[in-house]
Amino acid sequence: MFEWSGELEVGVPEIDRDHRSLLCQARVLDEAVKANDPGISRELGALILITEAHFRWEEGSMREHGYEGYGGHKADHDHLLKQIYTLRDELAAGRVDVSSSLLTLFIQVWTRKHIVERDRAYASYLRSSVQPS
Questions:
Q1: Which of 73, 85, 90, 123 could link 96 by a cystine bridge, Cβ 3.0 to 4.6 Å?
Q2: Which SS3 state, helix, strand or coil, does residue 130 take?
């Protein structure tokens, strides 16, 4: 579930690199959850930081290249961030226990829905619209 595979590759090195990093950190978080490690909050925080940085880069790239799908793509980013912030806040308040199944579901939605659909569409646009100088 948290391993990089060719089906997730979008063909833009910067995006693929970030996605690999996100999945790697998700795997670290999953291992902490399974071990009931007290560092779960720290690992979730690291996942959030990587996600925020990736979204900032991607949104900047979309604006720079005039991507027409920017609004919907950004809305997806905002929704995913809201979900992960809520999870972080609920965890910090002791109102929720992060389970491996919850994390797996979040990652499945993110990878299968967002990367495969939204990011692949943007990557295709980017590859076809950006001509080498």
A1: 90
A2: coil
pLDDT, tens digit, 9 for 90 and up, residues 47-103: 999 999 999 999 999 999 999 999 999 999 999 999 889 888 988 888 777 776 677
pTM for the model stands at 0.88
Give Cα separations from 98 to 7, 19, 84, 94 (angstroms).
27, 22, 11, 10
pLDDT digits (tens, 9 = 90+) for 19-55: 999 989 988 988 888 898 888 889 999 999 999 999 9
Q: Determine how many CB atoms are found less than 10 A away from the CB of residue 90.
A: 13
Whole-angstrom Cα distance, residue 78 to residue 72? 10
CA distance 38 to 35: 9
Exposure b/e, 26-55, CB count within 10 A at least 16 = b: bbbbbebbeeeeeebeebbeebbebbeebb
For the chain, domain boundaries: 10-129
Instruction: Please state the φ and ψ torsions of residue 65, each to the nearest 5 degrees.
Output: -100, 10
User: Class of the 10-129 domain?
Assistant: mainly alpha
Residue 73, Cβ neighbours under 10 Å: how many? 21
